[in-house]
Specification:
Number of strands: 14
Order of helices and strands: EEEEEEEEEEEEEEH
Shape: elongated
Amino acid sequence: MSVETRYFRNDTDTINGLLAYLLKTLNTTSALEFYIGDNTTAYVGIRVWKRTSDGTETEITSGTAVAIASLASGISAYVQKSATWDCPQTSLASTDAIIVRIYGDVNSTPPTTLMRTFITEQMGATQLDAATWTVYYWIRRIRIFDGEGYVYGFWYVHGSDTRNSRIANFSWSSAPPPVGGILAQII
């Protein structure tokens, strides 16, 4: 069993036919930002799929965003928020990759606007283990006076050591080697 922290990186690759940002155990060093919108509260969440080597996707979440975090109006700042999701045990082929899509909206939850798509490498796993993921989101909030009052802009931020949006407790297993193979090597 492997228990990892997976980072939402700033670089891309094509895995199982999908060009996406990478979701790996090491982070990149410079942040990217994606505009969520202007209003008084921003919401972000994830949906999760497995993707086979032929490009077939099967959703693991239930069709709406989970691990939803929110950030309300306030002073201009970068703010880290977190939320959890109970990942169910999910069987995988060794060539499957996991896709995590980030959704965001202002004043609307669950969020439905796709912001970013991330993908793991082919994991060599037999299953995602049942585990509670903690998803950490960095959100940039800017407070602007427009002459009549304050407005607030929100951005989702990922890809650097200081703005390290990530998933903790990402857990998976691979098959043990066959017993006969081990015995044959011992003998």
